[in-house]
Write a structure and sequence with these properties.
Pfam families: Maf (PF02545). Keywords: Cytoplasm, Hydrolase, Nucleotide metabolism. Belongs to the Maf family. YhdE subfamily. By secondary structure, the protein is an alpha/beta fold. The chain has helices at 12-19, 42-58, 86-96, 133-141, 169-173, 177-188; strands at 5-7, 25-27, 66-76, 78-80, 100-111, 116-128, 162-166. The chain has six helices and seven strands. Strands 1, 2, 3, 4, 5, 6 and 7 form a seven-stranded mixed beta sheet that branches. The model has no long low-confidence stretch (mean pLDDT 96). The protein binds thymidine-5'-triphosphate (TTP). Thymidine-5'-triphosphate binds at residues 9-11, 13-14, 29-30, 34, 53, 70-72, 74, 82, 103, 147-150, 152-155, 158, 172-174.
């Protein structure tokens, strides 16, 4: 019998990405408080939060279920999560403006019955164009910044802010699908092709 796959995420983007591949899955959102500790590295935070989400959801699953979770952060001198206000979004986008930053997604895959617990990360470099303050304001007013790490969505109107990217595009959107397949193939014999 095939193991059930559970995506531990409320993010519509993660669901949409995974739906494009050869895999049936259920969704159980993970409710974890995203606390960032002083001095922690971005990749450490992204991996720890992804791992926490996977473990939380695993409690509600059958022992054979394979649970997948992810967490995305944006990093430039500091770790940027989701904006909490207009000012916060403006500050983040001004920090990222006309420069290179990295988007890091932690990915965790876990199964209770085998005690397999894998945690890894993917990193993508993104360069933003030189944006006039009025363009940044207009973008925030578009309304898509709110549930996005770093206050932009590359898959939305945020595409207009981007100069170039180096690495996996899907990693920026929130799910490093190629890295995920590496993990699923290697540890569970599951192919997404
Ligand atoms: C940089 C960037 C982030 N994002 C999103 C991906 C993530 O959904 C979000 C970062 O928040 P996360 O905390 O990683 O995820 P989430 O709260 O949306 O969902 P869950 O914890 O239930 O899995 O930012 C984009 O959609 N596009 C982008 O270009």
């Amino acid at each position: 019998m095939l193991n059930k796959i559970v995506l531990a995420s409320a993010s519509p983007r993660r669901k949409e990405i995974l739906e494009n591949f050869n895999i049936d899955f259920d969704i159980i959102p993970a409710k974890v408080e995203e606390v960032i500790h002083e001095g922690e590295e971005a990749r450490q935070i992204a991996m720890a939060l992804a791992f926490e989400k996977a473990l939380k959801v695993m409690e509600h699953c059958e022992a054979d279920d394979i649970v997948i979770a992810a967490d995305t952060v944006v990093y430039k001198n500091e770790i940027l999560g989701k904006p909490v206000s207009y000012e916060d979004a403006y500050r983040m986008l001004s920090l990222l403006n006309n420069d290179i930053h990295v988007v890091i997604t932690g990915i965790a895959v876990a199964q209770k019955s085998t005690n397999i617990k894998i945690v890894d990360f993917e990193s993508t470099k993104v360069k933003l164009k030189n944006l006039e303050p009025v363009r940044i304001k207009k973008y925030i007013e578009s309304g898509e910044v709110w549930d996005k790490a770093g206050s932009y969505a590359i898959q939305g109107k945020g595409a207009l802010l981007i100069d170039w990217i180096k690495g996996d595009y899907f990693n920026v959107v929130g799910l490093p699908i190629s890295k995920l397949e590496d993990i699923l193939r290697r540890h569970f014999g599951i192919e997404l092709m």
